[in-house]
Amino acid sequence: MSACSPCRADDAAPRADANAMHAALGRAAIASLYDELALAPKPGLVSFADAGSHEDMDASTFLRSLFALRHYFVRIAAQGAVSPSFAPLEALGIEAERRMSRATGGVNTHRGAIFTLGLLCAAAGAAHAGGLPRHAASLRQVLLARWGEALAARARHPRDTHGARVARAYGLASASEEAARGLPTLFEHVLPALREARRAGAGDRAAKLHALFTAMAHVADTNLVHRGGLPALCEARRLAREFLAEGGGLHALAAARAARVHAIFVARRWSPGGAADLLAAACLVERMERLHDGTVR
Which residues contact 187 (CB under 8 A, 6 or more apart)? Predict the structure, then answer.
């Protein structure tokens, strides 16, 4: 036995614990994306009920994408734990986009989620490595401290993506700008709405509808702008705020009211994909908190 063997043995338990946590974070990300897919009715978006405003994808397309992404979230959590550099995270995200594209035949099902949920997994991996709680405040703090400057630089010199082009053309905040500010729409609006609805006694579907419409009311959704220009974004926000003002997910007829908004979106071919990503992100933060607290494995 070499002189180093005891050191390797001593390191084995922490490594195993870290690997188990990264795997759990990866499962949580996939489960949260499945939550978003399974929710119905939701305006213009794909669910198991229908394809919403989309002709190039349906629920089976999303399931193929989720299967292709199952290792990505594990890997980015592990990378976030070992390095403060943003470049390796971006490389993992680009490779995940390629995997998604191969699985879906070129259809963009999860590019926004690859970015946002990937950053959350990286932040959770870093928080775990640093002995910090994987709660919302700590996740946001870690995200800003480790990658805030790199994300701000990325926002100034964005990749040539569909969302970045729309944001630039219409003067909207890009995904990178939102991330550089610590995902304020997620942490200040969508996640609190999900929690408040649950505390008020809403069931799981109703609470998620409440969070989704909150996201629609606040996010500068480039998916909507691409399909209908700024008028689509303004009208979507108006409909979302009307839904919330009348009780949101806590209203007894929340599902029926959401179905009426869904019909409007489908008729106009609108799809709030950015809001859908924020719903999945809120579900993921909830799961990360439960993982930290030991209430779910």
Answer: 136, 140
Reported for 154-158, long-range contacts at CB under 8 A and 24+ positions apart, including other chains, are 154/86, 154/90, 154/180, 155/180
Alpha-carbon distance of 263 to 133, in angstroms, equals 42
Q: Are 104 and 114 in contact (CB under 8 A)?
A: no
Q: Can you list the alpha helix ranges (DSSP code H) found in the chain?
A: 5-38, 59-68, 72-82, 87-104, 111-129, 136-156, 162-170, 175-180, 184-185, 191-199, 204-218, 222-245, 254-268, 273-293
Check: CB of residue 73 under 8 Å from CB of residue 93.
Answer: no
Distance of CA 100 to the CA centre of its chain: 15
Sequence letter at residue 7: C
Confidence class of residue 160 from pLDDT cuts 50, 70 and 90?
low
pTM assigned to the model: 0.92
Q: How many angstroms separate the CA atoms of 158 and 164, rounded? A: 7
Cα four-point dihedral sign 141, 210, 220, 269: positive
Q: How far apart are CA 287 and CA 233, in angstroms?
A: 30
Is residue 108 within 8 A of residue 64, CB to CB? The reply is: no
Q: Tens of pLDDT along 38-86?
A: 999 999 999 999 999 999 999 999 999 999 999 999 999 999 999 899 9
| Closest of 187, 169, 179 to residue 225, by C-alpha | 169
DSSP state letters, 31-78: HHHHHHHH--S-TT---SS--TT-SS--HHHHHHHHHHTTTHHHHHHH
- Residue 250 and residue 91: Cα distance in Å, rounded? 41
Nearest alpha-carbon partner for 92 in 134, 129, 121, 63: 121
b/e map of 67-102 (b: 16 or more CB within 10 Å)? ebbeebbbbbbbbbbeeeebeebbebbeebbebbbe
Residue 248 DSSP symbol: G
